[in-house]
Amino acid sequence: MSTLIKSATIIDTSSPYHQQKKDILIEDGVITRIDDHIPSQKDFIQVTEENLHVSCGWFDTSVSFGEPGYEERETIKNGLTVAAKSGFTAVAVNANTNPVIDNKAAVEFLTNKAQGFATKLYPIAALTKQSEGKEMAELFDMQQSGAIAFGDYKKPIVNDNLMKISLLYAQNFNGLVVSFPKNQAIAGDGIANEGVNSTKLGLKGIPALAEALQIASNLFILEYTGGKLHIPTISTARSVALIKEAKKKGLQVSCSVAAHHLVLTDDELHEFESNYKTNPPLRTKADCKALQKGIRTGVIDIITSDHNPIDIEYKKVEFSEAKNGTIGLESFFGAVNAVLNLSDFIENITSKPRSIFGIEAAAIALGEKADISLFNPEGKDTFTKKHILSTSKNSAFINKQMLGKVYGIFSNNQLILNS
Fold first, then answer.
1. Does the pLDDT value for residue 362 go beyond 90?
2. 12 tagged catalytic
């Protein structure tokens, strides 16, 4: 199969064609020609879109589906289809399934189930057995079966000695430990950011201190042990400052921020809409600005959707009783593009996450395997339920204004376009 992408502006700093408008010919999944004009042939599949831009394939490092165990939330099949139509050629899938992905067979179930799709699935296996935080899981065996990192989704490692042992052990095979930034004792049973809004609304608060304490503790342990640590979905200005200092010391620490923490604040909570109930909670405007600056200055390495489908029976309840989580794949690009310049964040969803999680990136260059996201960075639109392709509909971005449009991807020798 031959695919001809016409008049596409290439956004790829590792490519000699960066910021140039070119035609791109892909044959049998490989880029064979890049030129100002490539004549089409009748057996070519031609891609022509308004203000078409292409970049290396986007990689989302925190995605939850549900299968196995919670297929009513999302199946792997539909989840990967949604990811492809949202512009992602790869996703890292969390271990919050039933059973938990905490052994070799469970990792292989995910990788086998995801074979043949355009979007590649990479498992993040549980760090501890059953994600209970008590006993380290069989990390090496799971890495050999395809796991790219190890973390208990949305659960902090309370036992500092277990964190120390995990960081030491993982160094034997260059493993990446993921530690959720939340001191549970300080957070307690809080459900919203502790501040003016939580006080006005009578909601139990989770102070920014809870996040800072856990990060500070993990960084002290990392400094002692060495190894590689990833801190997912930070949400406060203090967290940015702590990680900045750690990087100055030369520690191998990386971090991510969820799209909703870059865009939304706890001002949204006045409606008591359960789709705004997330973990970490939505924070203040000051935190939002600090996180955006963290992206621009390189302190924050990755932007993720933190896509977490929750079925309606756990969301259409009182705010205090609702489960945490928002879907985010479909709204990701339009939301982030609305608050950041494309040049400021494109590496945070392409080359940086791949480097941190040990995945080889393919440049947009001759002879390279085609792994490409297709999009238009311009054009405003309002995100509504009709844009949701996921099985679960719990989006925090419903009725929010987006900037830009995703056309699809070319990956694994497959062209997937939004209809």
1. no
2. no
Residues 23 and 85 in one domain: no
In this predicted structure, what is the pLDDT of residue 1?
79
Of 405, 389, 393, 410, nearest to 78 by C-alpha is 389
CATH of the domain at 326: 3.20.20.140
Q: Are residues 213 and 146 in the same domain?
A: yes
Range of the domain at 138: 57-356
CA dihedral 293, 223, 181, 137 (to 10 degrees): 140
> The whole model's pTM is what?
0.97
Question: How far is Cα 358 from Cα 148, in angstroms, rounded to an integer?
Answer: 7
Are residues 37 and 98 located together in one domain of the fold?
A: no
Instruction: Assign 332 to helix, strand or coil.
Output: helix
Beta carbons of 190 and 204 less than 8 angstroms apart? yes
pLDDT of residue 42: 87
In a domain, 204, yes or no: yes
Over pLDDT 90: what percentage of the chain?
Answer: 98
* CATH number of the structural domain spanning residue 405: 2.30.40.10
- Condensed to tens digits (0 to 9), the pLDDT of residues 106-161 reads 999 999 999 999 999 999 999 999 999 999 999 999 999 999 999 999 999 999 99
Element (H, E) at 11: strand 2-11
Q: Indicate whether 91 and 31 sit together in one domain.
A: no
Mean pLDDT over all residues of the chain?
A: 97
Among 266, 287, 301, 306, which one carries the catalytic annotation?
306
